Every structure is written in structure tokens, then in C-alpha cells.
Amino acid sequence: MTSDPGFYITMAATSLLALAMLIAAGYKGFMAWLDFKRAELAPAHPAPVSPTSNRIELADLKERLRKLEAIAAGVDL
User: Fold this and answer.
1) In whole angstroms, what is the distance from residue 4 CA to residue 11 CA?
2) Best label site of 42, 59, 61, 68, fewest CB within 10 Å?
């Protein structure tokens, strides 16, 4: 090995540059992965809500509420 300080400075700078390039590539890949996951989790088309389905859901909730109130009151259904 040489004892030339320029050699060591060049090697250190090259290593630091290579490490920075690897970190930048990893960061870019991670951000692309996050964008992919966000797109995967986002709903493609929101389901249309019809008035009929709202009434059915409301009736279902009322029925559940009646059952819970009966359980709380100690009444067998």
C-alpha cells in the first residue's frame, strides 16, 4: 500500500459517493413502493349509495339496537 494521502482521500471520497448513490436509490425505491401501496389501498371506484341501501342499513342498525337493549334489560329474545 502507498502512504500517499491523496490516495486515501480519493478512496474515501469514492466510497462516500458510492454510499450516497446507494442511499438515493434505496430512498427512491422506497418512495415508489409507498406510492404503490397508497394506490393499492385507495378505492378505485367508490360504491354508489342508493336510498334503498341506506334504509336497509338503518333498519339493520335499529334491529341491532333493539337486541342490545333487550340484552341489557335481561330479556330473552
Assistant:
1) 11
2) 42
Q: Which helix (H) or strand (E) is 43 found in, with range?
A: none
| pTM (two decimals) | 0.51
Q: Do residues 40 and 30 lie in contact, with contact meaning Cβ atoms separated by under 8 Å?
A: no
Whether the CB-CB separation of 70 and 77 falls below 8 Å is answered with: yes
CA atoms within 13 A on the CB side of 61: 6
Angle at 29 between CA 45 and CA 12, to 5 degrees: 165
Contacts 24+ apart (CB under 8 A), 25-32: none
pLDDT in tens, 4-62: 999 999 999 999 999 999 999 999 999 999 999 999 888 777 677 777 888 888 999 99
